[in-house]
Design a protein that fits this description.
Blueprint (H helix, E strand, L loop, with lengths): L1 H19 L7 E7 L5 E2 L5 E9 L2 E2 L3 E9 L5 E7 L3 E6 L5 E11 L2 E11 L14 H12 L7 E4 L8 E9 L6 E9 L3 E8 L12 H5 L3 E5 L10 H9 L17 H18 L8 E14 H12 L5 E7 L33 H7 L4 H5 L6 E4 L9 H10 L4 E3 L11 H14 L4
Parallel strand pairs: 2-9, 13-14, 13-15, 15-16, 16-17, 17-18
Antiparallel strand pairs: 1-3, 3-4, 3-7, 5-6, 5-8, 8-9, 10-11, 11-12, 12-14
Helix pairs in contact: 5-6
Length: 440
């Protein structure tokens, strides 16, 4: 009996430690870094990449690697090496503006470990390949006008469990471009009555619930965070997972053959209607708050970066914006053997697709949904940030977009990041928006 009791006590003692145990990182690591601290080179300049393979933090002798290098998405050199002391230098260069990318795969004990690095070459000279349709402005002016034929009919549902003494939170919905097609989102408003600046948060790709932005609202900003799929945004994750694997699977490809049937047509008009919704708050007496009709920002990353560019270009009420690793930019660049933005419509890694392989009509139709063509029309201040190691939104497209964007603009790249951001990057991004919204 005593032994049983002692065994039970031992199991109870180690149970919490077992429950907290988790897998973090890998014992084998690969590192690829450029020899310029700013990761930037001139055209034709030798680029030296430092490569290390480590085990338990120390260099791994006789490490077997394979690598590919060249313009991102279009490597021109592929080799295998044995690193006697676990480290080496690999050099390359580009004669034209762009990004030279080195991808290294270490083969250790039957497993592969990857790392990559993309160095900038005269990035300020990168030009987009996107062609702008002559009737681009007419198309979108008509789309917004027709969407506004449908009354907003806003509906607010108080979320007491998400509200605080400083911030009141609602699930909000309003009609978009036809009766019954609604946009849903989370609205956070300061609890104290008054007129405030406003911020519209637009989403990255996928299907998910949303939590809103209590932090910014607490600082004295009306914040509306929207979804784009016409479904409530406060359900359990399983609801969204089912949609993403069925009805909304690969939704970004829906209707790309026809500008009027493109999935993003109602998404973009929905973003403009979201600004309409912010303006409408003054007519909802129960809220006690209203937009100050002067300061209004739009922000998002990835797909949300594209939607930020589109909304800012199309709605003159927007006074500032923040676009982080904006997707859906320079679609047709891949037809010129240049890196294109997500969702890489015309890029086939195996076939290295060329213009001859693609229906020219589809290319023409997607031009109405290219972030580059929206960026060219922007006139208000904006913040741009992205990583050089991003495989989803290649920095070639990010720079191409930034270089042609209109208005006052601030660029703050974080070279090491991929399709994510560092805490410092996030803090800088939010500080930019608050400053341009007049919030201290």
């Amino acid at each position: 009996m005593k032994k049983t009791f002692l065994l039970l006590m031992l199991l109870l003692a180690i149970a919490p430690a077992t429950a907290l145990a988790q897998i973090i990182g890998k014992n084998i690591t690969v590192s690829v870094t450029p020899d310029h601290k700013d990761w930037v080179y001139a055209k034709g300049e030798k680029i030296v990449f430092n490569v290390d393979v480590r085990k338990s933090g120390t260099l791994l002798d006789n490490a077997e690697i394979s690598y590919e290098m060249g313009p991102e998405m279009y490597p021109t050199e592929k080799k295998k090496l044995t690193l006697k002391n676990g480290t080496t230098k690999i050099s390359g260069k580009l004669m034209q503006p762009g990004f030279c990318k080195l991808k290294v795969t270490a083969h250790v004990a039957g497993k592969d470990y990857e790392a990559w690095c993309a160095a900038a070459v005269a990035p300020e000279e990168i030009k987009p390949k996107a062609v702008c349709p002559k009737d681009f402005d007419e198309f979108w002016a008509k789309a917004i006008k027709e969407a506004r034929w449908t009354a907003l009919e806003p509906h607010l549902e108080l979320l007491p469990e998400r509200s605080t003494p400083d911030v009141t939170t609602y699930q909000v919905s309003f009609q978009n471009d036809r009766w019954g097609r609604r946009v849903y989102g989370i609205l956070n408003v300061p609890a104290k009555p008054g007129r405030y600046p406003a911020l519209l948060r637009v989403p990255g790709a996928g299907v998910r619930p949303y939590g809103g932005d209590e932090w910014t609202a607490k600082k004295g900003v009306i914040v509306l965070e929207i979804g784009i799929h016409g479904v409530p945004v406060v359900k359990k994750q399983a609801f969204y997972d089912n949609l993403f694997t069925a009805a909304l699977a690969d939704y970004w490809h829906n209707g790309i053959h026809d500008r009027n049937r493109n999935y993003y047509k109602h998404v973009v008009t929905g973003c403009v209607r979201a600004v309409d919704m912010i303006a409408e708050l003054k007519n909802i007496a129960s809220l006690g708050v209203a937009w100050d009709e002067k300061n209004l920002g739009v922000t998002g990353s990835s797909q949300g970066g594209f939607l930020t560019l589109a909304t800012t270009a199309l709605d003159p009420r927007v006074s500032c914006y923040g676009a982080v690793h904006a997707a859906m930019c320079d679609h047709e660049a891949s037809l010129h053997k240049v890196a294109c933005g997500w969702p890489h419509y015309f890029y086939d890694e195996q076939k290295m697709t060329t213009a001859q392989d693609i229906d020219a009509r589809i290319v023409a139709e997607t031009r109405y949904y290219d972030g580059v063509n929206f960026a060219r029309r922007i006139t208000v201040p904006g913040y741009y940030s992205f990583g050089y190691n991003d495989n989803v939104v290649p920095p070639t497209t990010a720079y191409a977009t930034y270089n042609v964007a209109g208005g006052e603009k601030t660029l703050s790249p974080y070279p090491m990041t991929a399709h994510f951001w560092y805490q410092e990057q996030w803090d800088e991004w939010q500080a930019y928006l608050l400053s341009h919204l007049g919030v201290k």
